């Protein structure tokens, strides 16, 4: 059921050393570094994104994710969903406009998996980088690194993924697009949720610890761009997790690697789409290796165990 939530808006990631982190996200991932705020946080966007930013880096003593934010239609929707979250029983906090540069009032709330999410309705719009919105060129000529087009989704690890699936579905209108189930244990192992036509806008894997960050993912234009990203990873000695390969889940073509603070990044191309009338796609837990890494058909221990 549509609740007025449009898409992922931004993610705030903790990094250990800001200088090396900025170089990674700007020069290697190829995000556009827009500015540094008065708190020392650094803001980035993919070149196709309309809003002023989609990634914020905050220097801290440990890596991970502070929160993931979702953009809603308007102020009335923001107020309505805020009350729905309060009625659901979430811890809800209002963050004033301007606390993030260029962003309006935000509604922050917790989840059963221990992750913090936010909703917002207003953010400065700076348009697609370097091409404009009238008679636009195909792409900017000064893009760097992997040329990430947009922040796409997060994969999060936590214990009560069924609780968070229920929260996001019933209150915010997310659709369960794909899942992994262990039928013998009657247990959902992983859940992929969308609030758009994408394969997923956020995903969860069952994990004994709450509030863990697995990766932030960025979309590339083609499989050739994923292969080029693999070359750049080797050229610059970036810590590789796995790939390039294909997912069974969502069918995206992918590669995983780590930023200098140990936060995992993904860049990918392709992937499925989801309409409201689509049935949930289910993978058996016994096929988890093939579901995650379709070519290798077996799991990489780093992929399962390394989270921030």
UniProtKB/TrEMBL annotation:
Swiss-Prot/TrEMBL catalytic activity: catechol + O2 = (2Z,4E)-2-hydroxy-6-oxohexa-2,4-dienoate + H(+)
Entry EC no(s): 1.13.11.2
Pfam families associated with the record: Diox-like_N, Glyoxalase
Keywords assigned by UniProt, alphabetized: Aromatic hydrocarbons catabolism, Dioxygenase, Iron, Metal-binding, Oxidoreductase, Repeat
SUPFAM superfamilies documented for this protein: Glyoxalase/Bleomycin resistance protein/Dihydroxybiphenyl dioxygenase
Gene3D superfamilies: 2,3-Dihydroxybiphenyl 1,2-Dioxygenase, domain 1
Originating organism: Pseudohaliea rubra DSM 19751
This protein's name: Metapyrocatechase
NCBIfam families: catechol_2_3
Subunit text: Homotetramer.
Enzyme class: oxidoreductase
Family the entry assigns: Belongs to the extradiol ring-cleavage dioxygenase family.
Domain VOC span(s) in chain numbering: 7-122, 150-270
InterPro entries recorded: Catechol_2-3_dOase, Glyas_Bleomycin-R_OHBP_Dase, Glyas_Fos-R_dOase_dom, VOC_core, Xdiol_ring_cleave_dOase_1/2, XylE-like_N
Swiss-Prot/TrEMBL cofactor(s): Fe(2+)
GO function term, MF aspect, one: catechol 2,3-dioxygenase activity
């Amino acid at each position: 059921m549509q609740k007025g939530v449009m898409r992922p808006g931004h993610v705030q990631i903790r990094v250990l050393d800001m200088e090396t982190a900025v170089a990674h996200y700007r020069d290697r991932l190829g995000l556009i570094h827009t500015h540094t705020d008065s708190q020392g946080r650094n803001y980035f966007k993919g070149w196709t994104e309309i809003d002023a930013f989609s990634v914020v880096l905050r220097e801290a003593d440990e890596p991970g994710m502070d929160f993931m934010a979702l953009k809603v239609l308007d102020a009335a929707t923001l107020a309505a969903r805020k009350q729905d979250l309060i009625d659901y029983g979430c811890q809800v906090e209002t963050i004033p406009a301007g606390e993030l540069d260029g962003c309006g009032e935000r509604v922050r709330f917790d989840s059963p998996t221990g992750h913090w999410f936010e909703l917002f309705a207003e953010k400065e719009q700076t348009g697609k980088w370097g091409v404009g919105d009238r008679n636009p060129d195909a792409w900017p000529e000064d893009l760097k690194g992997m040329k990430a087009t947009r922040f796409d989704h997060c994969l999060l690890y936590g214990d009560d993924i069924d609780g968070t699936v229920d929260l996001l579905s019933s209150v915010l209108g997310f659709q369960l697009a794909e899942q992994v189930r262990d039928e013998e244990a009657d247990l959902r192992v992983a859940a992929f949720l969308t609030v758009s036509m994408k394969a997923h806008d956020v995903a969860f894997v069952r994990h004994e610890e709450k509030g863990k960050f697995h990766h932030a993912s960025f979309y590339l234009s083609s499989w050739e761009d994923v292969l080029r990203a693999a070359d750049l990873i080797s050229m610059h000695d970036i810590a590789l997790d796995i790939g390039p390969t294909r997912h069974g889940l969502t069918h995206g073509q992918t590669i995983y690697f780590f930023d200098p603070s140990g936060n995992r990044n993904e860049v990918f191309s392709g992937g499925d789409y989801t309409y409201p009338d689509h049935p949930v796609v289910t993978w058996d837990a016994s096929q988890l290796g093939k579901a995650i890494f379709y070519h290798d058909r077996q799991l990489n221990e780093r992929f399962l165990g390394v989270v921030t």
